Amino acid sequence: MASQNLLLLPGDGIGPEIMQEVKKVIAWFNDKGGMSFETDDGLVGGSAYDAHGQSISEEDMAKAMAADAVIFGAVGGPKWDDVPYEVRPEAGLLRLRKDMQLFANLRPAICYPALADASSLKKDVIEGLDILIVRELTGGVYFGEPKEIIDLGNGQKRGIDTQVYDTYEIERISGVAFDLARTRGNKVTSMEKRNVMKSGVLWNEVVTQTHKNGYQDVQLEHMLADAGGMQLVRWPKQFDVIVTDNLFGDMLSDVAAMLTGSLGMLPSASLGAPDGVTGKRKALYEPVHGSAPDIAGTGAANPIAMIASFGMALRYSFEEIEAANKLDKAIANALDKGLRTKDIASEGQATVSTSEMGDAIVAEL
Amino acid sequence: MASQNLLLLPGDGIGPEIMQEVKKVIAWFNDKGGMSFETDDGLVGGSAYDAHGQSISEEDMAKAMAADAVIFGAVGGPKWDDVPYEVRPEAGLLRLRKDMQLFANLRPAICYPALADASSLKKDVIEGLDILIVRELTGGVYFGEPKEIIDLGNGQKRGIDTQVYDTYEIERISGVAFDLARTRGNKVTSMEKRNVMKSGVLWNEVVTQTHKNGYQDVQLEHMLADAGGMQLVRWPKQFDVIVTDNLFGDMLSDVAAMLTGSLGMLPSASLGAPDGVTGKRKALYEPVHGSAPDIAGTGAANPIAMIASFGMALRYSFEEIEAANKLDKAIANALDKGLRTKDIASEGQATVSTSEMGDAIVAEL
Ligand SMILES: CC(C)[C@H](C(=O)O)[C@@H](O)C(=O)O
Ligand SMILES: CC(C)[C@H](C(=O)O)[C@@H](O)C(=O)O
């Protein structure tokens, strides 16, 4: 394997602690796995703001654009609640997504067998759950203009956000969903609110057309996003791949993640389009969970989602499928041996620290 | 009690069947409860479209504007999937909400003790659940302009929706939430996406200010809407009153309703501002569930949400608190006696039809 550049952006809260564990895993693959990763570190979010008043520096943005993959921790925390909107911690993440054109966000919601009891849902409802949410990540209400607060006088202000989707954006994200469905359960459920939103009408139309044009072998189903939220709670196993827009994807993937009882375990991948010449995609990998400032520094953070995010990098950026499977297996083994961080322990069960969990996974490798 | 005008709009699917049961309840209150309701019927949704090509006629709109309360069934179904956007079934409901200025949508998510087992969630997570979602209903992305699909040429279209909130809209809906919290658990959780949306920034700011100005005795908490969806699944009992915008309210209230396992049981109220002279509010009452076209005509529909919606009318439009309590008690009694429609029966449990359930509730009165 030619040398690959990883930019590590640990971010805030528990970000640096869990990134520490990924470094151990990367070191193992370099030493014993025949790989050759070169890593560089950068700042993002509140920690970048503290260092230089921006949620990500131009220098780190340039590194991200040049990296073979970005490994991202988490951003945000009460410390930065009152910083100006433009430089709030989340702005760094949103800029990475937008400038790197990471339009396809893959969020698996998997229920790890060892953890089926940790869910608030009944065991039979979530045991064996394996769904993939494909969220559009560079469009919609996150980025549409106008996006502003206008002073109307008389003590009145107006807050405006704009949801915008163009045909090509819907086409490319549904193409990703159909392609992925073929490697899994061969079914796609598209979710929008076409009964209320014009962007939903267009979404529905374009997904239907994309299906007709090249994916008729895949089963396609349409569902209103509110009904989709309900169905996720009622019987999530009815889904295979869900494709939806940026904002619905944000909500629905969080609900789906929480269903599994395995929130601290779930990775995500954000991918750009393949480059026309090299075929390589820009990519960023991050855990689904947030920066959990309340437990930062206590050694209670679960590093598995972060490590599994690196696993997704092996799979999607480096096509090291065997290595990715090996890493997933190492995680499952550590769980099977009863190792639990606090978030996934049942009452009375012994727990290990962030770094003990990281070490155990490396040992399993 | 002076005579009160009710406009009944059964709508589509199971709407007419469940409205039939409400009529029995209204008749009982007229005959034996010392009340004096006059009812009129109208068409809305697909049935209105079939009759006169509109999702609600001008005549029925005028009746709704003049009524003391509108009792609404449900709209929509596959039959009307391809009618023009402007006259789709939902347009009738949206016009009622907008023209009657029903800005405050109250959606209780209650777990009926007799039904705690029907939920996909663990019993201890939802037993005794009693939360109230206060959803803004006349603003946001539902009604903001521009809302359109533009043809960009070259096979490209652009779908646009606009999320707009003004200070006064956020002020009045949060006032409703704080007022209601005082009659309950005295806690309000406000949900938005201020980390991504400018309307969310304004929402957060105005709710905080409204709290400061007159509701400091009520506990106020802010939560990002995606985290809110997660927390609803994880531990819903942490909430008392949730206040949120139109679209987040749509999603979150559906998730909350499904948590309870009692979807066929949950009513809602949509209220306007009190009239400056008479103090009366325009109001519409409807079940949280939809038109369920798949079971229409089979006698399987559960009429309880519809009947409980009339109960909310007694409470909020007619201040007949005792009668409202009596009706709620009659519903609980029928359930305690083991009466179940199909949707709420456990495996192997005997079921009753829509009209048998209605009759049983009247008998309990
Ligand atoms: C941190 C925030 C901007 C982000 C989002 O809203 O997309 C997060 O919730 C996510 O889902 O990745
Ligand atoms: C029918 C539809 C327009 C409506 C909405 O989106 O508001 C429904 O889902 C609801 O929640 O009342």
UniProtKB/TrEMBL annotation, chains A, B:
Residues the record marks as site: Important for catalysis: 142, 193
Catalytic activity: (2R,3S)-3-isopropylmalate + NAD(+) = 4-methyl-2-oxopentanoate + CO2 + NADH
Binding locations of substrate: 97, 107, 135, 226
Cofactor: Mg(2+); Mn(2+)
Gene3D superfamilies: Isopropylmalate Dehydrogenase
GO molecular function: 3-isopropylmalate dehydrogenase activity
Subcellular location: Cytoplasm
Pfam families documented for this protein: Iso_dh
Positions with a binding annotation for Mg(2+): 226, 250, 254
The record's free-text note on cofactor binding: Binds 1 Mg(2+) or Mn(2+) ion per subunit.
Isopropylmalate dehydrogenase-like domain residues: 5-361
Chief localization: cytoplasm
UniProt keyword annotations, A-Z: Amino-acid biosynthesis, Branched-chain amino acid biosynthesis, Cytoplasm, Leucine biosynthesis, Magnesium, Manganese, Metal-binding, NAD, Oxidoreductase
Binding-site residues, NAD(+): 77-90, 290-302
Pathway where it operates: Amino-acid biosynthesis; L-leucine biosynthesis; L-leucine from 3-methyl-2-oxobutanoate: step 3/4
EC number(s) stated in the UniProt entry for this protein: 1.1.1.85
EC supergroup of this enzyme: oxidoreductase
Quaternary structure note: Homodimer.
Protein family: Belongs to the isocitrate and isopropylmalate dehydrogenases family. LeuB type 1 subfamily.
Task performed by this protein: Catalyzes the oxidation of 3-carboxy-2-hydroxy-4-methylpentanoate (3-isopropylmalate) to 3-carboxy-4-methyl-2-oxopentanoate. The product decarboxylates to 4-methyl-2 oxopentanoate.
Protein name per the record: 3-isopropylmalate dehydrogenase
Biological classification of the source: Bacteria, Pseudomonadati, Pseudomonadota, Alphaproteobacteria, Hyphomicrobiales
